[in-house]
Amino acid sequence: MAVEYREEPCRSALNRVKGMAFGWSLNPYMGCVHRCTFCYVRAFEHRADRPFDERYGTSIRVKVNIVEMLRKELARPSWKCESVAIGAATDPYQPAEGRYRLTRGCIGALAAASNPLSIITRGPMIVRDLDVLTEAASRAKVAITFSIPTLDEEVWKKTEPSTAHPRQRLRAVKELVDAGIRVGVGMAPVLPGISDSPDQLAEVVRAAREAGATGVWTNMLFLKPGTREHFLASIARDFPEQLPRYLELYEGRAYLPVEEIKPLRKQVSALARKHGVKDRRERPLDGTRHDEQLELAV
Ligand code: SF4
Fold first, then answer.
1. Which atom, in ligand 1's list, is nearest to the CA of 120?
2. pTM as predicted
3. Would you list the domain boundaries of the chain?
4. Sheet holding 59-62, edge to edge
5. Residue pLDDT, tens place only, 116-129
6. Cβ of 122 less than 6 Å from ligand 1
């Protein structure tokens, strides 16, 4: 599929975020060529009246001046050095980063300002930036999350048409953790009836432990308008036997009730304890060690 890259400068680098686990975010790119069927960003695109269907991920905005803007914003006397989440609204290590190196530049700017940061990605390209990441982690808290919802080959291929193989992501986790960086695995979204069997969940937690992940958390699929239409169409095509269940589960709601998500969280929590997933870094760059870290984030 042809992808258009639009080099459009931004007016600011940092975005104030409300109602999330972080207060500030930063996205060097808008749109994501990975085009996961469940991508929650489709809902933002829907709200902004932009394409959220098959065309999503075919036109990527590149904020070519974001590093320069970020440096200016970090230097403001009013900036309180709060943690910045990179990649909350697109993958910061999607292929464009190989050419533009904007995520790398932003990490460098945050490191120079000794500013804490977090990154969420499915892109093993992150290991290219081990030098700036270790620099950042030696100056302020750095927390990386690799999204690895499943190791089931069929489910991965059908739901994440353009991401790197999950095993490649696990190799990246290992490389980063071995370098002393805190890296957790986010098993999200887990898809009811498709990637939530005890064996499927155990396989990911075991692999996360083997890779040295410092924590693991999980969350179930949610379907806001925009994501919903596209995802249900993909279920009808790829897992037709599951369609009635999804129509029923998500009828009139985007999120499953907590009581339906709790068993999943309990299972992953128990698996993490069983397999001993915890911060085992031999030389943590941030000088701390933590016991088992289980985050129930989005
Ligand atoms: S990698 Fe993340 S941002 Fe990109 S399409 Fe998949 S879920 Fe969306």
1. 2
2. 0.93
3. 1-116
4. 4-7, 59-62, 29-30
5. 999 999 999 999 99
6. yes
